[in-house]
Amino acid sequence: MTDCIIAMRSQTYAAKGKRVLGKAGIRAVIVSIDPSLTKNGCAYGLRISGESCPAAADILGDHHILHGDIIGKGGYYL
Predict the structure, then answer these.
(1) Is residue 31 part of a domain?
(2) Percentage of residues in the chain with pLDDT exceeding 90?
């Protein structure tokens, strides 16, 4: 399965998200994304293995770490 990118509000939120996901056993890499790809103009995101995307989004929500669109095979846009 392909990777997805969970868009984040800022580099700080991306770093917090990466830390939280790492503690849950999900590997994430902070990436820069073109702000025009997201509804809210997010410029950073977390690249995650596609099979872990739904779980990662749930974990971020459980920890009140706001995120934007999910881009990629595991997300809203293909």
Answers:
(1) yes
(2) 49
